[in-house]
Amino acid sequence: MGTQPVELNARGRQGRVLSVDDSPVVRAMVRGYLHTGGYQVQEAQSGSEALRYLAAGAYDVVITDLHMPELDGFALLSAVKREAPGTEVVFLTGAHDVNSTIRAIRLGAHDYLTKPLTNADAVIASVQRAVEKRHLYEENQQLLNQREALSQTDRLTGLANRRAFEGGFPRETALAQRYGHALSVVVLEIDRLQELTNAHGHQAGDEVLRSCARTLTGQLRAGDGLYRYSNEEFVAMLPHTDLVGAQRVADRLVDALAATEVMIPTQIPIKASAGAACLSVGDSDRSTFLSRAFAALHEAKSQGSPRSEPRQVPPALSDAPVSRARRRTD
Hints:
330 residues; alpha/beta; Alpha-Beta Plaits
């Protein structure tokens, strides 16, 4: 039987190590050396037991014998790389087992130590280097995650951008089709934004967009998504919302923007147009669903309708109803 799991969140430890060997003598030596170095050690007497510990908690380093019954060190290394990327592996090998050592390094092992383990400093130094490499991996992952988040965020408004929408839209439509719940989108465009920018400057145009983002965000539910789709266009993705609900949201968004005034330094009213569409049972291509919303937006812009009204899209587009909306005219 292996030892009981130790707490993995104790403060002041230099790292978390999983020691794997079918020999209790070797495990005791590794544990003693690493405790001296300030490391937290969990022991496993087989590769299979090590996998159970890895599934239950995070470890910085796995230090393992190569030759064990049931699941050897090579199989354990493969599992670690697959299930716990970033966790480093240090092998224990015989002094003359050169071929196995070379194979382990080529498969991604961080380092190897030869048995018998008579040098405590060598064990601690190897694990320390592995822990440092693990920390670098985590830092790199954080930087990559931050970079990915920035690449999907509109810097001006702080909203998710078109790239984020194009990444999330297929997932939302697939979920809606799989589980049979409604999904709608509202496409909204700020009217004559370029004219406003030309008349009052880029700072004025930027402030209008930031104000629009704040207003629109405040009108949506927590589960809805709001995206800056292009320079003057926003898209609201509305899970569990049918066409009637989407029409109401479109009207509410347009009216909320009409009530928003930007001081730069004169008062500038915001005017907007919107179109809505609901995912149809016959939508085999999700792009046609979005196209219907844009078609409704274009119609709203051309007709200047004061409210959203249901209509039927021409057969060339779809048989699903969509809506159009424009600000109230005073």
